[in-house]
């Protein structure tokens, strides 16, 4: 099973995929009624050309489906790529799909992302977003404890509301949201996945989503090594 753990309780699982590097070059060559039976150096050069010249449609004939379990703060950043997929200039990609578990229906025990005392980061010096260096262990210990206490209060109120007969879709209001793990399926073309990777592997991306992007990259590379080499500018 293609599953890799991320953060403290998260994971990415490659559920399914369609196509390969060979699929990409054959999609490009169909204009000339040509087809490669086996991937060759000539095909690798064609992928280089397609990526370099911005001929993006062949890369949309390769599709991947992932199951992702991540804190809500990561999921909502990720969701921007679904909203923008049909409108982003140059992609023309309207084939993305996102289906997420809902606490209107699911009442399994919530799981929360809790940074350890050595994982809290300072605010950046020269930017309004992002983060800086790791703060001191002593201060990190204080805020790990505060977060755990906050989650405990929210969980008690959530469980009390359910026990009192409050519906799940309203009881969930008591749950601390941004650190709560959510599960979803993401299906996207290789071009769209590459756009996500180029932005979220960048050094100024939020660290937590960078960790997920690294895993997505590793799972994709097995099936599309040549295409990824040309499409990803942040190696």
From TrEMBL:
Q: Which Gene3D superfamilies match?
A: 3.30.1360.170
Q: Which CDD domains match?
A: ThyX
Q: By its UniProt entry, which InterPro entries does this protein fall under?
A: Thymidylate_synthase_ThyX, Thymidylate_synthase_ThyX_sf
Q: Name one Pfam family in it.
A: Thy1
Please, which domain of life does this record's source organism belong to?
Bacteria
Membrane-traversing stretches: none
EC identifiers of the protein? 2.1.1.148
Q: Which NCBIfam families match?
A: thyX
Name of the protein in its database record: FAD-dependent thymidylate synthase
According to its UniProt entry, this protein's organism is Paenibacillus aceti
Lineage of source species: Bacteria, Bacillati, Bacillota, Bacilli, Bacillales
């Amino acid at each position: 099973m293609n599953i890799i753990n991320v953060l403290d309780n998260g994971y990415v699982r490659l559920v399914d995929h369609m196509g390969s590097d060979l699929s990409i070059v054959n999609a490009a060559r169909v204009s000339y009624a040509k087809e490669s039976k086996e991937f060759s150096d000539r095909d690798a050069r064609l992928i280089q050309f397609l990526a370099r010249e911005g001929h993006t449609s062949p890369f949309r004939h390769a599709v991947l489906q992932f199951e992702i379990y991540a804190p809500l703060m990561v999921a909502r950043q990720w969701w921007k790529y679904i909203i923008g997929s049909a409108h982003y200039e140059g992609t023309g990609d309207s084939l993305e799909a996102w289906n997420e578990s809902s606490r209107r229906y699911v009442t399994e025990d919530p799981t929360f992302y809790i940074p350890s005392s050595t994982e809290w980061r300072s605010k950046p010096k020269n930017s309004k977003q992002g983060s800086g260096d790791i703060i001191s262990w002593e201060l990190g210990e204080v805020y790990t404890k505060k977060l755990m206490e906050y989650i405990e209060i929210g969980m008690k109120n959530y469980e009390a509301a359910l026990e009192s007969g409050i519906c799940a879709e309203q009881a969930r209001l008591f749950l601390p949201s941004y650190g709560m793990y959510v599960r979803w399926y993401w299906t996207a073309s290789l071009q769209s996945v590459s756009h996500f990777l180029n932005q979220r592997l960048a050094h100024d991306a939020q660290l937590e989503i960078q960790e997920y992007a690294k895993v997505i990259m590793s799972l994709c590379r097995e099936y599309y090594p040549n295409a990824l080499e040309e499409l990803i500018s942040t190696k």
